[in-house]
């Protein structure tokens, strides 16, 4: 009975890896091209690499997982070196390694692996949109503001002490959290003003300003 349960559990892991690999591979196949200039990998390569990652993880040998990752990375480096295009990117090579790691993750957490595959496929599919957004739509000041917000959320917030200071008056982490919330609200309002028509943008700005004021008052 236990062997049967283990078999079906392994089958579920492989099925998850198969689905994740197919999802990423189908998107890459659309951009692979043909002839000598075609890209490194398509639907079959991504599916096989994801399955290989799941199989290596199911084997329970850590060295096998590391060796598999090294082989996929070496394959990506070799493909990058032989790329004949004027501006060779590394998106497909990195995505292929990610597909292997997602396959490994399927053996531990299938929900996390599926989420990673969906996010990765979305980023791959939105290539032109993201390029246009970052190069044409965003302004330099907005990029700087975004970097400051990211630094607050990813660096300052985790390092801020989570204990009352100054005679128990303020908690630094709560204060940083409040600043992050206010900046996010202001950023969303700013983006809304640029995206919406003028009369709708004014209403959104008023709503955001009121929300910021009430949030600061409650805090």
Automatic annotation (TrEMBL):
TM segment ranges: 6-26, 46-77, 97-126, 147-168, 174-192
InterPro entries listed in its UniProt record: MgtC_SapB_SrpB_YhiD_N (IPR049177)
One Pfam family here: MgtC
Transmembrane helix as UniProt keyword: yes
The keyword Transmembrane is assigned to this record: yes
Chain ranges of the MgtC/SapB/SrpB/YhiD N-terminal domain: 14-132
Keywords: Membrane, Transmembrane, Transmembrane helix
PANTHER family the record matches: DUF4010 DOMAIN-CONTAINING PROTEIN, MEMBRANE PROTEIN-RELATED
Name of this chain's protein: MgtC/SapB/SrpB/YhiD N-terminal domain-containing protein
UniProt organism field: Acidovorax delafieldii 2AN
């Amino acid at each position: 009975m236990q062997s049967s349960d283990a078999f079906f559990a392994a089958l579920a892991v492989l099925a998850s890896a198969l689905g994740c690999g197919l999802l990423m591979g189908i998107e890459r196949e659309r951009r692979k091209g043909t002839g000598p200039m075609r890209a490194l990998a398509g639907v079959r390569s991504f599916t096989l690499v994801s399955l290989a990652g799941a199989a290596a993880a199911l084997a329970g040998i850590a060295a096998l997982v590391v060796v598999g990752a090294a082989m996929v990375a070496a394959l990506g480096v070799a493909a990058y070196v032989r790329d004949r295009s004027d501006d060779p990117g590394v998106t497909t090579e990195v995505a292929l390694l990610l597909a292997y790691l997602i396959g490994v993750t399927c053996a531990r957490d299938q929900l996390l692996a599926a989420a990673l595959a969906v996010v990765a496929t979305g980023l791959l599919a939105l290539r032109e949109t993201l390029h246009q957004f970052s190069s044409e739509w965003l302004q330099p000041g907005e990029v700087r503001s975004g970097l400051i917000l990211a630094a607050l959320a990813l660096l300052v917030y985790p390092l801020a002490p989570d204990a009352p200071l100054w005679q128990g008056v303020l908690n630094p982490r709560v204060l940083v959290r409040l600043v992050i919330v206010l900046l996010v609200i202001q950023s969303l309002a700013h983006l809304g003003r640029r995206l919406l028509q003028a009369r709708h943008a004014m209403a959104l700005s008023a709503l955001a300003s009121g929300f910021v004021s009430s949030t600061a008052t409650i805090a």
